[in-house]
Amino acid sequence: MAGIMVICEHLAGEFSDITFEMLDVANKIGGDITAVTFGSMKEKSGELGIANNVIDAGGDTEYNPESYASGAKAAVESNSPSIILVASTSMGYDIGNPLAVNLGIPLASYCTGVSSDGTNHEFTSSLYGGKMSVTSTAAGPAIALMLAGAGDADAGRVSGSPSLSQVSGESLDRVRFKQLIEPDAGDVDITQSEIIIAIGRGIGGKDDIEIAEELAEVIDADIACSRPLVDAGWLPKSRQVGKSGMKVKPKLYIALGISGAPEHIEGMKDSTTIIAINSDENAPIFDVAHYGMAEDLFDVVEELIDELE
Amino acid sequence: MKIAVLLKWVPDLVEELEVDDDGIGIDTDDLKFKLNEFDDHALEEALQIANDGDEVVAIAIDGDGTEKMLYTAIAKGASSGIRLTGGSNSNTANLAAGFATALDGGNYDLILTGVQSVDDLDGQLGPILAANMGLPCVSVVSSLNVSGGVATVTKEYSGGIVAEFEVDLPAVLGIQAARETPRYAPVSKIRQVQQSTDLAEKSVSGSSTSGTIITAMSEPETGGGAKMLDDVEDLIEILKGLGVS
Ligand SMILES: Cc1cc2nc3c(=O)[nH]c(=O)nc-3n(C[C@H](O)[C@H](O)[C@H](O)COP(=O)(O)OP(=O)(O)OC[C@H]3O[C@@H](n4cnc5c(N)ncnc54)[C@H](O)[C@@H]3O)c2cc1C
Ligand SMILES: Nc1ncnc2c1ncn2[C@@H]1O[C@H](COP(=O)(O)O)[C@@H](O)[C@H]1O
């Protein structure tokens, strides 16, 4: 059955948005769609209505990289899909990559799009932090690691009653789940903010954050940031926007000195209005922004503060 | 404990990137390269967890930047550096096969890679290497502690949520962030290391599985979405239009 297989991702008993995005991508490619679930998620197979079939690959309720990869392999072997969609996420990395090795098939990562005639596939990927778009091809069974944003989760969220079958992978315990740790609630919940000023590495140093804070006060915005500022310990994790941070949807998102890597864009692309200020006119952030200024952020921010105060 | 850290030389994204004449790669002629930032974190984390008597071995594929990466790693505190020759770096699967032969039998307790790099599209080397070596792997690791042959790690999910796992060693870990900002090695120290230290060399046999084939590369439409503004006055108008001021 040379169809499309979607390796579903879940967290805390719910399918993640990326699962529905991938179902939407699969639906648009067209053909027989098989979704693979783990743990007890088969009980929610009715949410995977876009799929014709659901294969329960067993495994622990909580993600276990080795058992899930093994279950995914068993599912592929039972179904012989022509394309396997895996999330380009922390969990998907540990499933998709070993799957490619263990099945001896090609893999395309950072995919924003896939098309296929059932045998020959074409992948579009975002490379170099979003600065280049790359097309690649493969024939025969292949794996695509799908970036968030590749599909429309709402369109992929269709209820139905796909047929249910079961495979089992190896139960491995070299990696053992211990606990989920929720982020420390910060002083501000940026997922609720109406206006966000997000700062990136372009801000230069910790002391320079002050000027962004000053502007934030003037326009009544909350401060958020890209990942490197959190890794440097300049701002708390609760302020991080992106793949491993928060997903925000403010009315206005002002990005200062943020390049616009796919991992950042994932967390803010649904903001109503996006304004980006970056001295590099080729910065990928300008591809998602509604308004942009290719200027030094300090010049712009100082002038804004002067004019608006 | 013996820890391997794999170091990769990647284009500095601050630079302007251009597509080369073939249309399927970037023009690297005048491009600035640097150590992949996540590899710098992997090295830092290795140096942080290493105690007296532990060994941190920096490993890179022979090519541009190799000496700089390895000497710098030693200047920062790594015990030694290995330059790998003879492998095929035509794609990540082949690279991983080469690394696997180089690392097998080396008695490494931990093999640390950066979580990912931005310049290739055939997967993340860490989990691919682990599959080649039959080792457990956790990628996107943001904290690491080792005790009695077991690593306790946190793996980052979305929404700021992390999951804690225990992993039996030996294992491969893809490091996202070290506990501290990667240290800096002064140029004088690097130069001193360069004069006083020999890098080991290890040759690996090439392998040649075929992966996906790149057929085109292009810059996404610059400013495709954005209306570019020339002065702050225009920006203020926009802000006022949005009810902000
Ligand atoms: C698994 C994984 C998960 C990740 N999760 C996240 C995440 O949740 N959130 C996140 O943000 N990143 C995340 N990242 C990191 C991401 O890949 C990028 O490294 C990061 O987003 C880059 O941050 P930045 O744009 O601030 O820095 P850079 O990419 O270094 O960009 C700095 C920008 O500032 C500009 N600039 C410099 N000086 C000035 C100036 N004076 N005026 C104006 N502009 C200036 C430069 O032109 C440049 O474009 C993740 C990465 C991985 C691998
Ligand atoms: N050519 C290489 N040389 C050394 N290390 C590499 C190489 N390719 C990948 N790696 C390691 O694997 C990690 C993930 O890279 P990638 O597979 O390119 O996403 C990097 O951060 C490095 O630690």
Largest sheet of chain B: 9 strands, mixed
Tell me which CATH architecture of chain B applies here.
Answer: 3-Layer(aba) Sandwich
Averaged pLDDT of chain B, please?
94
Helix content range of chain B:
25-40%
CATH fold description of the largest domain in chain A: Rossmann fold
What ions, cofactors and ligands are bound?
Answer: flavin-adenine dinucleotide, adenosine monophosphate
The topology string of helices and strands of chain A comes to: EEEHEEHEHEEEEHEEEHEHEHEHEH
Span between termini of chain B? 58 Å
Number of strands of chain A: 17
> Looking at this structure, what is the CATH superfamily of the largest domain in chain A?
HUPs
> What is the number of strand segments of chain B?
13
Number of domains of chain B: 1
Content of β-strand of chain A: 25-35%
Describe this structure in words.
- Chain A is an alpha/beta fold.
- In chain A, 27% of the residues lie in helices and 28% in strands.
- Chain A has two domains: 4-166, HUPs (Rossmann fold, 3-Layer(aba) Sandwich); 190-308, TPP-binding domain (Rossmann fold, 3-Layer(aba) Sandwich), CATH 3.40.50.1220.
- Chain A is built from nine helices and 17 strands.
- In chain A, the strands form three sheets. Chain A has a nine-stranded mixed β-sheet, sandwiched between helices.
- Chain A starts with a strand and ends with a helix.
- The mean pLDDT of chain A is 96.
- In chain B, the strands form two sheets. Chain B has a nine-stranded mixed β-sheet, with helices on both faces.
- In chain B, α2 (66-76) packs across α5 and α3 crosses α4.
- The interface between A and B is large, with 91 and 83 residues.
- The complex binds flavin-adenine dinucleotide and adenosine monophosphate.
- Flavin-adenine dinucleotide (FAD) sits between chains A (200-202, 226-228, 240-245, 257-259, 261, 263-264, 267, 277-280, 283, 296-298) and B (115-116, 140, 176).
